[in-house]
């Protein structure tokens, strides 16, 4: 079967815009409220991980995983999200990472489907605020995803939503767990960031400014 590219599927945080700092501040505040301080190094382990799983990791850090009922954990996660939403209230087109809109335009002109596979339940809200919703053929609602990254479910859902064969899809991520998810979905993985952390991706770029469709296509067909 001839190789082809049917869809390019994006993560949101750290790829399209950098809301990671807002997530860090919101989780840090919740951690402090619970008497569980943590640093940026620990926060790196939360990147690409769902809200529920992130909360579990924080509670385990403070050895408090058995201190709350499931309902109370839901309340804690909701509290974190409310603070996060408050922090991103002023996000706009200026917060798109460099090169992203140009890359989206290139993909559209090539008549390749575009989807989003984010762990964030606020993905659609953020996409609307960034003014990029019209580029996307589908944005997966993270609330419908059972298994968080590194499980491939969210990428497979995105591919299915745009009627694309996962083997003919390219996934773009900035987190190690996200690259694991793309690879597990049997897609071609493009990572943005530190090559020592993301070396398991098919292609690693140092920044979003390096995203250029013809370059990615060449790497894809050479693989």
Automatic annotation (TrEMBL):
Q: Does the keyword Magnesium apply?
A: yes
UniProt key word Isomerase: yes
Q: Which UniProt keywords apply?
A: Carbohydrate metabolism, Isomerase, Magnesium, Metal-binding, Phosphoprotein
Q: Which residues form the signal peptide?
A: none
The superkingdom listed in its UniProt entry is Bacteria
Q: Which InterPro entries match?
A: B-phosphoglucomutase_hydrolase (IPR010976), Beta-PGM (IPR010972), Beta-PGM-like (IPR051600), HAD-like_sf (IPR036412), HAD-SF_hydro_IA (IPR006439), HAD_sf (IPR023214), PGP-like_dom2 (IPR023198)
Gene3D superfamilies, per this entry? HAD superfamily/HAD-like (3.40.50.1000), Putative phosphatase, domain 2 (1.10.150.240)
Cross-referenced Pfam families, in alphabetical order?
Hydrolase
Please give the catalytic activity noted in the UniProt record.
beta-D-glucose 1-phosphate = beta-D-glucose 6-phosphate
**EC numbers, comma separated:** 5.4.2.6
Q: Which cofactor does it need?
A: Mg(2+)
What PANTHER family does the annotation carry? 6-PHOSPHOGLUCONATE PHOSPHATASE, HEXITOL PHOSPHATASE B
Query: What's the family?
Result: Belongs to the HAD-like hydrolase superfamily. CbbY/CbbZ/Gph/YieH family.
Q: What is this protein called?
A: Beta-phosphoglucomutase
Q: What is the lineage of its organism?
A: Bacteria, Bacillati, Bacillota, Bacilli, Bacillales
